[in-house]
Amino acid sequence: QDNSFEQFIINYCNEKLQQIFIELTLKEEQEEYIREGIEWTHIEYFNNAIICDLIENNQTGILAMLDEECLRPGTVTDDTFLEKLNQVCATHQHFESRMSKCSRFLNDTSLPHSCFRIQHYAGKVMYQVEGFVDKNNDLLYRDLSQAMWKANHSLIKALFPEGNPAKINLKRPPTAGSQFKGSVATLMKNLQTKNPNYIRCIKPNDKKAAHIFNEALVCHQIRYLGLLENVRVRRAGYAFRQLYEPCLERYKMLCRQTWPHWRGPARAGVEVLFNELEILEEEFSFGRSKIFIRNPRTLFKLEDMRKQRLEDLATLIEKIYRGWKCRTRFLLMKKCQIVIASWYRRYA
């Protein structure tokens, strides 16, 4: 119920993860259809980039203003930090505070004067400003880093590279918020170079008990995890897509015209393949470089046909091998019989 600086930066990380989830699923999904020239009706979804900008913007972001308060001379308190937020973020649609003199929240008794509220992607969260400045100023000073770097234990030494005398930096050590923001940026950069798979866990109840299903709790999680938008995009779009070359290479054995070799362009080969298999036209679409398959059952059908075809080819190979082996043995026996008969006639 009481959220402070720690929960604020945790929720900031969650917002960034949700942002990259949107980028790599909903946005990328729809942009790929446009790139490939597929007919597509745009699905609306909420992009939480505006919330991330509220927190991490270098000039007007909450973390930037918190650092500015920590560095400026004079009396600095949590109240002066909140006052600064109220001046800069008063008109932001995802920021709420009773001290911002905004008529929308002046009479909001659920929002204390010493708090501010952010409308996150997952819902509204209220933060107590008490302790924000002190926790952000929780610095590891240079002399402590140098002392830890001089330790004989290799792991401890590796944890404090900034203590190396060869890398002395006279600048003020970064604040806790700045360090966390840098760590999140590194994480996002790393994730964007990968092809992540998402596993969404739904908690059925708060009691951690079996056979209890709290419908309201589950619906809330489905909404803030962005599953509704994802399902809408997936249902309106295509469940599977693949480049023409690997698709033809995998399924060419299902068509006499493409097996064992197809001499023309890969797209033409895939068109011939799907026409001969008599797959309904509404089940697939041809993009500029990929084949798009709408329903998983069509893909499962192709896989089942391929599996059966592999079994038939294995049987054919086995049959030919057995025939060759039997014929080779027969020819050898025939040759031996002729040799024996010729020698027998010579001495008969």
TrEMBL record:
InterPro entries: Kinesin_motor_dom_sf, Myosin_head_motor_dom-like, P-loop_NTPase. Keywords: Actin-binding, ATP-binding, Calmodulin-binding, Motor protein, Myosin, Nucleotide-binding, Repeat. GO terms for molecular function: actin filament binding; ATP binding; calmodulin binding; microfilament motor activity. Pfam families: Myosin_head. Residues 1-307 form the Myosin motor domain. The keyword Transport does not apply. GO terms for biological process: actin filament organization; actin filament-based movement; endocytosis. Gene3D superfamilies: 1.20.5.190, 1.20.58.530, 6.20.240.20, Kinesin motor domain (3.40.850.10). The keyword Repeat applies. Belongs to the TRAFAC class myosin-kinesin ATPase superfamily. Myosin family. This is MYO1B protein. It comes from Elachura formosa (spotted wren-babbler).
